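Researcher: I'd like a structural prediction for the single chain below. Treat it as a standalone chain; there are no partners to consider.
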Amino acid sequence: MDATQIADLAPQLEQYLVDFDDCFCRSEPMAHLRTYVKGQLSDLPRKSVEPIALAAGTPPRTLQQFLADADWKQSLMREKVQRIVARDHAHSHAVGLIDETSFAKKGDKTPGVKRQYCGATGKLDNCCVSVHLSYATPGGFHAQLDSELFLPQDWAEDRERCKNCGIPDDVVYRPKWQIALTMHERARANGVSFPWMTFDEGFGLIPAFLHTLDDRGQRYVGEVPSNFVGWCKRPEVRPAGSRRRGVRKGPCSRTAQVPDDAAVSRVDHLCHYSPAFMRQRWERFHIKDTTKGPTVWEAKAAIFYLKRNGLPTRAHWLIIARNVLDRSEVKYFISNAPGARRWRCCCKWPSAGG
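Model: Treating it as a single chain, here is the predicted structure.
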């Protein structure tokens, strides 16, 4: 859309923004919200505060104060956005996306800033990190549903520092994966349905994160690191009350166990050496076209069992994908998509595994 088409949408935009008026206590911030949103939708070459304010005839400092200090009901606005998405944009193939964003910063005054991994620079850097939940549909609709600051533990333990930066007392340290689960639960409570969830290995490396999504009945396809572990062949589970083979005396086990030799394996080892993968051919997928040419990946998938409380879970999928043009670029994914159990039963080589 060009600037003229966007301008023609002004009446609809105004009606849309009216729904958020009760998120503010006064009329002035309501007006500033309109100024800021219209500026972001304009054809200004730079869409920072100063050019937006000057184009609207508003003093830049006034708009800066609105963004920094305005009193508004964040939870109410978040709830309204999520209910609008649930009402107007629900789709049977929608995907929820969990991700983190890093912002490189100088100094030590910005809330949450510290030396930590920064995705924007690709290295350890002085930065702030936030966690986000977005919603996308095949038709091109994309919306951010939720966002929270990641507060490092040393910040959370220094409440005076937090107070000086305007961080409320109820904002404490939580691992990023726990923040993501809270946002997922909050969005579902507001009516948003996620047929699928996806995330990168920063979240997928946490088994408790995957187990919680599974417990909620949430289907997902998420990236995991190469050293994530599990089984391609389900190990035998020794029932509770049994003794180890060859042991005549001694107490019986009070919990189910797997044999000592049923060690878990890394997913990169399974994908390269397990018969479940070695007997398959790669399947190619055209991802998209770019200015440098088509992006094509190839993949294999096999059943996979995660380890939970020392025992194998129900059947999942383990997927390996590699870039056709650069086969050193390899990614691993876990999915709890339905069908793994049925595929296992119908497989011609049911004993294959790592």
